[in-house]
TrEMBL record:
Keywords: Cytoplasm, mRNA processing, Ribonucleoprotein, RNA-binding
Domain Sm, chain residue ranges per copy: 1-68
SMART domains documented for this protein: Sm
Leader sequence residues: none
Role summary: Component of the cytoplasmic LSM1-LSM7 complex which is involved in mRNA degradation by promoting decapping and leading to accurate 5'-3' mRNA decay. LSM1A and LSM1B are essential for the formation of the cytoplasmic LSM1-LSM7 complex which regulates developmental gene expression by the decapping of specific development-related transcripts. Required for P-body formation during heat stress.
PROSITE patterns to which the protein is assigned, alphabetical: SM
One GO MF term: mRNA binding
Protein name as catalogued: U6 snRNA-associated Sm-like protein LSm1
Length: 111
């Protein structure tokens, strides 16, 4: 298992990829050449992190990546870190607006 390329899903929703160099009984792990994969709609960006230590209590899922298989569907587009941050901000603002509109409409009670 050590020296395998892994995908690690964290409790806060982040997805990290890298080569497993070490782990312990608490699921603490060290990834070499780690990057954070950020996905917004059909856009994605791999943000390099380098050597990364992950605290086991933050790990939700660890999975081995198949290096011979394509990682992403063909319609996904790789963009820069700045562009993916703008897309995240726009998505967050749209979500906040939707929540605000729902709160404003609750008083109608259309049931």
């Amino acid at each position: 298992m050590v020296s395998e390329k892994l995908l690690v899903l964290l409790r806060d929703g982040r997805k990290l990829m890298g080569i497993l160099r070490s782990f312990d009984q608490f699921a603490n792990a060290v990834l070499e050449g780690a990057c954070e994969r950020v996905i917004v709609g059909e856009l994605y960006c791999d943000i390099p992190l380098g050597l990364y230590v992950i605290r086991g209590e933050n790990v939700v899922l660890i999975g081995e990546l198949d290096l011979e298989r394509e990682e992403l569907p063909p319609q996904m587009t790789c963009v820069s870190a700045a562009e993916i941050r703008r897309a995240q901000k726009a998505e967050r603002e749209a979500s906040d607006l939707k929540g605000t509109m729902r709160k404003r409409m609750e008083f109608l009670d259309l049931d």
